[in-house]
Batch of 2 targets.
Target 1
Amino acid sequence: MSETPPLLVDIDGTLTDESRAIDPRVFPVLREWPETVVIATGKAMPFPIALCEFLGIERTVVAENGGVVFVEATDELQLRGDHEASLAVAEAYRELGHELGFGAVDLANRWRETEIVVSLNQPLEPLERVAEEFGLVVLDTGFAYHVTDPSVDKGTGLAAICAELEMDPSSFLAVGDSENDAEAFDVAGEAIAVANADETAKARADRVTEARYADGFLEAVAPYRP
Ligand SMILES: O=C(O)COP(=O)(O)O
Ligand SMILES: [Mg+2]
């Protein structure tokens, strides 16, 4: 067994199956990991916080692609990104006759503080055009289009957490599936893309697993488990 590194792990497409359902086989792995676990996701903060809470692990979280960082150990919450600009993009996109695509209640955006997301079944080209007008970019995570601030990402989120915890980002193992994991892959010491990852994530990873989704995560962490 290799020495266990601190772990940064993505949620959708990495801890889940393709339906976004978390695979319960990952729960004991995360609970028993002997080093720091950072849950780093494009989802809004309540989702990774709840995952840590229900798992009974420390809430050390990057949410909204780095727009939100929470470190329970130091009771530190950091918000970055340009929420006003992303809300203006949403308004301009609606004025073009499009919808965000998550219905009236919109649980995908309801708790966001730094970016917005649009459903993959909505047109991408007008969204990218409007986002550019406001100095933002659109990330396709395979689960949603994220209209986000290009100066903020999971890599800056990991760096912020490491500054709080006096850790070195290059000590981390990072596991993910999408272009929104790429910057975390760049700063982590070892980056592993699961087999279902997009081409950007695969190109920025040190290696790609044989297995897909949560099976790929379990394969990635197997060398570090007793
Ligand atoms: O919510 C998304 O679109 C992607 O989330 P993830 O970063 O956990 O894969
Ligand atoms: Mg993902």
Target 2
Amino acid sequence: MSGTVEAPPLSAKDKNSFAYLTIKDRLPVILSKIADSVYRLKGKIKETYGEEGTEDLKSVAGCISKLRNEVQTNKPVVPIQDGRSDVPVWNDHLKEIITTTGSPPKWFESPWLYVECYMYRRVQEAAELCKTLKDFDVFREQKEKSFFDSQQAILVLMEHLHNVETEGESGKQVDLKSLFEKFLRVSLWGNKCDLSISGGQDVAQRSSPLDQLHQFEPKILIDNTKDVFKCLQGIKVTKGHPACVDIILDNAGFELVTDLCFAEFLISFGLASKVCFHEKAFPWFVSDVTPYDFDWTINQLCASNSIYMSKLACKWKQYLEDKTWQVAVDDFWTLSFPFNEMESRCPDLYARLAKSDFIFLKGDLNYRKLVGDLAWPFTTQFTTSLRGFQPAPLCALRACKSDTVTGLRGGQADEVKAKDDKWMINGNWAVISFSDKLT
Ligand SMILES: O=P(O)(O)OC[C@@]1(O)O[C@H](CO)[C@@H](O)[C@@H]1O
Ligand SMILES: [Mn+2]
């Protein structure tokens, strides 16, 4: 099945596409913001690293402005030149593309997924080429701000989770299914808060994430919650213990907190016995979670004045110590490959995920990679669009921010388009798409 390409890749070739707008407008803005933040940190870096730091900053700024120019003038993609372990994969893949297509990819002509991922890898190259700033995260300032700006929403959510758990512990009958539905939805809508779609504009969650659920309900285009719940419960019965769950994370800030709360809910209500969070190895698509962001977030929550936040977060530290929770990083998540190529390109990760009982994939980019970033007819079955990628039962939780989606009913796309012309890209519509077995 993985051999049949049923649809063309999204690409900026199509001037009416979101890919075109992204490459023409959004990526240059993201790159300019990087240059701004680098200059803002000048004093601080000089103080910490001295002249060498200042030289490194200049070099980062130079690389970013060169990259911006390459994007805007549609230059061919060039090999990566730093010493990171993933360089051979990127450069061999580039050779592969040149062999197949006859020329190197270009920003406005090649598959969007490839060139956009490549851009973030080039941003990392700018850091890798430094002596003092190898671990410098050009997006850190923005990520931390979005976390702090979401404090009220985080407090509301964590207080609620704390109360729900206290009720459960007191022996009071709880409606497990509707609680599951609630925390799943909070995690789903947490994905509205990504800094890449907004070009780094404010995306903090300011209203109560719980009060909003009702209002957002009609915006869920595909809702496989029941199947997901049934599957998790079924695992408990067949295995004799709750599921070992993997969550492929997306963004830091409010979204990460919603994912941690969802994982906490799964553990404390016996729907999961272990959760493994998958993070990005380096700064990616502006707001994605790196190992530093993950630890930083839990430490911030732990140090909070709110007893609800600190109690839960300290419990999470304990989970991490006793391996109830684990974190994992793999370079595959910061490569450009669609997930149907995981088994051949990164067999270890595939084998690792095949041991999972259930995989949640957060966000738009993971969704794009799941369905190969292809322009599928909307009514294509979700499972078909996975093109053979099925290491375990899986569920995509995604606010729609790019022009690909599968699994809709006939006529549904027209109905939603009539209500909202930008439904595919504005993050106001979402899918909870489940796939169990390959059909
Ligand atoms: O994966 P996330 O954080 O939900 O979204 C990342 C994202 O904004 O970046 C891409 C365009 O630059 C979009 O396709 C995508 O929605
Ligand atoms: Mn993201």
